[in-house]
Each structure stands twice: as C-alpha cells, then as structure tokens.
Amino acid sequence: MAITPRNVYSFPTKAEGQKTDVKKIGAKDYNGFVKILGTLERIPCPYCGNDTLTMNKNDYWICSHCECPIYGPSLPENAQGGEAAAISNINSMIERGDYQSAVTEYDKLIKDHGTAAHWYRYGMLYVEYSNAEVSAIKYDRKGFMEENSEHREKAGALLSKAKLLLYKALRVCQNSFDQEVADPQTAFIYVMASTKLGDPRGIKKGLAILMNMKSDMLIEYGGMMLSVTLADHNNVILHADKILTQDLFSVNALYYMAWALFKKGKANDAMKILKGMSIFIHTPSMDGLVKEIEAQRLF
Asked: Global pTM?
C-alpha cells in the first residue's frame, strides 16, 4: 500500500458523497500534504531534467516543473543513457541562464526523440526563455532604455516560437489519435499543450480521449487544467482537493490550490501553502505566483 498524507498525518477523509465547501477551505486544511513533501522520492524528469517528487513509481505522476506526465514503470532504474545525459546537460545550461545553448541542444535532441512530450517540453523551454527576457527588463536604467526594447522584442519572438512548438506537439498527438495508437501520456500532452495555448476546446478533446483510458490521475489533473483555463477557481479547488485526498496525489495540486485561493482573495492562505512547499521544492510557477502575491500586497 502506498504511503499517503492521510496515512501519515491522519488527514480527515470525506464520507461517501460528502462535498467540499470551497468557501471554508484554507491553508490549514493542507498542512499535512505540505509536510509529506519531505518524505517523497526525488526522480529526475526524463523531459526537463529537474527533480520531481513522486509517491508512487508504479503509475503516472506529473513533473512538478514542466508538467509532463511520467510513467514510472517505463523509467529505467538508473537513467544513464545518452538522452538522460543530454537532458541533464541542458538543465545545467538553464540553471546558468544560458537559454540559447539550451534550446540549441534540445533542438538536436528532439531530432532523435520527437515524441509529443518532447515537443511539448521544447515549447515550454521557449516559454521559460521568453520569461527570462521579460525579467531582464529594468525600468531604472539610465538613458532611453533601448536595451529594454530589445528584451521585449526578443521575448515576443521567443513566445511565438513556443506556440509553434506547442502546436507541433498537438500535431504529433493527433497523428497518434488518427492511427489509434495513442496512450494516456499522449492524450494528456494534448491537454497540457492546449492549456498552455489557452484553448479550452482542445483541453476538452484531450479529456474526452483520456476518459476512455484508465488513468484517474491524468483525468483529474486534466479537469483541473480546464478549470484553470476557464478561470473557474472553485472547480480548480475541487479538482485539487480530490487529487490530494483520494490517493492520487500530485505536488502540483498544492500549487494550483494556492493559485485558486489567491484568485479568490485568500492571499495569506495561498502564501502559507507556497512557503511550505518551498522548503522542499522550487518551480518557476511557484516563484511567479509568490511575486504576484507580493506585488498585490504593495498596493
């Protein structure tokens, strides 16, 4: 039996048919889940190279960094192959802020490993590159700030490239659908690429395909992504709560719980969850949400 937050921290379970009251949910309801992060196994994501936390290697889980779906049984016990080494090298480049080298190397990698998940990750790498350029914009520069204009233009071009790569991921998924060889991972990538493109119709299409496959985690997570895209904050909370309390568990569900609470005006609760998570893991999404909350507090 997998160790769950409920087993360790006696988190109160819901009776059959009992509904979650989103109006009463706060950070205190998820302290047990934040604490459990320190006990989870860390495994490098095969697509982005970042350590991701998992509770159950015998099923799907979601990378806490790039949100690619990872199927535990398909991972070698010790990933020492050429692809793993290349991904690790690319991740080191990103950590140094050398995004240009990272995208160049990923472009080489994807020629040999052009799965839908790889194309999705490649697109998200360009999103990160674009965000880095936006972060380089400074309004306290002296002079006419030409450098800011350069960063802004480059960020826009990189984001356009990212969208093209995400559409490529969707086309690879569609080819699998047409050939009737799609697996849950492919359908989930269709959901995630559509999410990043802000396309609820695409998310619904991917979810419809996922519904015919046995993967409660990916289905529930996909439903959460649809709610995020539609800015349906109450349903984001309900999906996240279900992921956390029904033995599915995803670190990212805690992040989206914090995001939805913040959007509902509960910034303090959101920050408590994020600060608890930051003891064990850091992601660009978490850092971005913390900055957004802190910026709001200034006004």
From this structure: 0.87
